[in-house]
């Protein structure tokens, strides 16, 4: 058996594991025990398996297009629109079109014959389409990791969302906040899970309790308003609210206004996703800028590299964020 | 010459006009004098030209995809995201993918070999890509009409934007407004041109002056804030502001707040495009709902019909709007 002819299936058979477990073990982007990972890697080395061969074997007669799958709830968030156009811009550099995939897209319908690869952004374990997409027999790059099981993606571009929330909480503490609260979605996505974990770690490290309220992934301003009103009523001396869902932060300001709390003075307010909503309020809201257009570019660039065989399957790239400090936390 | 073999070029030659003028004259969606239109139509009838033949001749070996072109400024407006997913949903019913075209897309790069047809949404005369796209040698459906010259689109889906602004101004007058103002983009798009014309007509019919301030097509809240602050300072007894650009209306409320005017009482506020921004303010803002997802569906449906030969080239379909009345105009 020459090294060129060794496939992922050969490795999986020799190791006595499934193809997806072998992929996970070699790729490094999925969940697999360290023992299994070492076992599969040893087998792969023995057989002379080369990941690049796998990457190339995934390539087929090019459709000239890649697919873009956004969260089902993402259609009203300008964050995803910026990300989409970033991906379009980068893909065109390689002569690739971006096909916008609707909600409820399954890998059926000949998806693999329509696109060379897929971008799956913020995959949520509650989304039934995601496992199908990961199994679509074309390279897949996820924006943030997928926390569910099944086939591992070929690559991922990730933000350090724990670090950005920690920076936000540090900033609020520095501005005098002693009783902060966080409005965050449940832990079905890598992003939300990181926020919960970071709030918990920060609370214990600083010995300052962060009250966490769960809201929908794409909470509306009205839902943020209701959650904030409840926080104001139940948390004594509440002095800061961090709102995770994009676009919902005006609801936090509305609740503060009704309660007679001055945003930026009596109540500090910050958002985990910068965008039109955070910039459109009065005062404007301090927010983490995830640089959506550049994020989309980075996802498309990694997929291009995987298709060209210039990135190894399992590649995970980091994407940087910045903190935009505005009037809602200046105590001016 | 049998009727089946007569092409648009045959008609153009016989009539002594260019292909695009012949297309405009027969299609009815473009600008051409009534004399020319009648002349070309007579020639077409004499030759036995059948528009359906032309529609079929435009069909080529299917790429399985249609292109979607959004305004260059549209990437941060959730209106266009909803519209895009509406188009994706409808196109999938016909087995068509939707390729998202980036800003600055030209008909070069083999566009006609990549897509069967194009959706060009809110084409603006200032956008240099639009004439190229209209000339891309595939059927084109525009969302709203194109006010520039060149090749006529194969079809259009239009809203009666004059009627919706008239309804909005009537509503404000009914709620007691005597000195309304309008923040609207310059007349480069069909939508903006209709708003200017409707404001002018309404002013003369009601003998109530509507003060119009020009703002960018995708004005930010800060730009709407600045324009409103200027209106408050310069228009005596200003009592209502209609904000046309999607997403900018929170700036109007911010300016009112700073000036000590209560929105919904001292100053009535309304928006020409409903969306997250209009629903996220306190009070929520009365707005025209253009039903973006359904608009996208209607555009994709017309393009499908043109590709299938079940709609005539030059078909213009109407799309309905509704008015959502909210706290910003209730005087409660």
TrEMBL record, chains A, B:
Domain HTH lacI-type residue range list: 6-60
Keyword set, alphabetical order: DNA-binding, Transcription, Transcription regulation
Family annotation (SMART domains): HTH_LACI
A Gene Ontology molecular function term of the record: transcription cis-regulatory region binding
SUPFAM superfamilies tied to this protein: lambda repressor-like DNA-binding domains, Periplasmic binding protein-like I
CDD domains documented for this protein: HTH_LacI
InterPro entries in UniProt: HTH_LacI, LacI/GalR-like_sensor, Lambda_DNA-bd_dom_sf, Peripla_BP_I
Name listed for the protein in its UniProt record: LacI family transcriptional regulator
Taxonomy of the source species: Bacteria, Bacillati, Actinomycetota, Actinomycetes, Kitasatosporales
């Amino acid at each position: 058996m020459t090294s060129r002819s060794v496939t992922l299936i050969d490795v999986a058979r020799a190791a006595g594991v499934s193809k997806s477990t072998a992929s996970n073990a070699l790729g490094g982007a999925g969940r697999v025990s360290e023992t299994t990972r070492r076992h599969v890697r040893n087998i792969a080395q023995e057989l002379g398996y080369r990941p690049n061969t796998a990457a190339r074997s995934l390539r087929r007669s090019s459709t000239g297009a890649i697919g873009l799958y956004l969260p089902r709830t993402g259609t009203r968030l300008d964050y995803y629109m910026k990300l989409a156009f970033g991906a379009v811009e980068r893909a065109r550099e390689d002569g690739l079109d971006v096909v916008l995939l609707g909600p409820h897209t399954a890998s059926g319908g000949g998806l693999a014959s329509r696109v060379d690869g897929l971008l799956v952004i913020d995959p949520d374990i509650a989304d039934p389409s995601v496992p199908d997409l990961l199994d679509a027999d074309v390279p897949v790059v996820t924006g943030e990791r997928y926390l569910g099981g099944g086939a591992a993606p070929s690559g991922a571009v990730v933000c350090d969302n724990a670090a950005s929330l920690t920076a936000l909480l540090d900033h609020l503490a520095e501005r005098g906040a002693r009783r902060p609260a966080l409005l965050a979605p449940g832990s079905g996505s890598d992003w939300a899970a990181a926020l919960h974990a970071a709030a918990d770690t920060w609370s214990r490290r600083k010995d300052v309790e962060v009250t966490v309220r769960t809201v929908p992934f794409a909470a509306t301003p009205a839902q943020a308003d209701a959650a904030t009103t409840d926080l104001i009523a139940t948390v004594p001396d509440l002095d800061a609210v961090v709102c995770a869902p994009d676009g919902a932060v005006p609801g936090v300001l509305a609740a503060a206004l009704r309660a007679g709390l001055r945003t930026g003075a009596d109540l500090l307010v910050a958002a985990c996703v910068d965008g039109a909503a955070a910039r459109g309020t009065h005062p404007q809201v301090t927010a983490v800028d995830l640089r959506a257009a550049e994020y989309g570019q980075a996802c498309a660039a990694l997929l291009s590299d995987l298709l060209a065989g210039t990135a190894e399957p399992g590649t995970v790239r980091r994407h940087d964020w910045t903190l935009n400090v505005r009037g809602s936390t200046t105590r001016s």
